[in-house]
Amino acid sequence: xxxxxxxxxFDWKLAKxxxxxxxxxxxxxxxxxxxxxxxxRGVRAYITFSFNxxxxxxxxIYRAGTLEKLAERGNYRRGSSPFTFRNARSRPxxxxxxxWHKNTPPxxxxxxxxxxxxxxxxxxxxxxxxxxxxxxxxxxxxxxAVYYSRATPR
Length: 154
Prior knowledge:
Layout: H1 12-15, E1 34-39, E2 43-51, E3 57-63, E4 68-74, E5 83-86, E6 93-101, E7 113-114, E8 117-121, E9 128-132, E10 143-151
């Protein structure tokens, strides 16, 4: 697994075995099933979430350089409130968007799985969507993150 191109390098050797992403912090992260937002200095990401599934679903936003979990949203008890994040650093910063699901409604004994993802642009203004699949029917409508970014004043 190759890390995403990032302005903030990630030390995979240091994190190996110490940091595990996923809703219960116990699963590896397959970057081929993730989307990425690159934020220049002073740029803010705006992300909204939607869920349309009987199975338990979650979307997690990580800082690419460290895999720090910045936001976790989902159906059932996780909530789906919007998330905003401003890059106040002097260099670009990447955020990773990942989807996760169980094959059942909430059940503590059922394992989480990383969801397949498709990403596409929605308009010329830069609005994008990452859509996730939880059941293998390839409709990619089980959970979604819609996002855009723009420069913001300090």
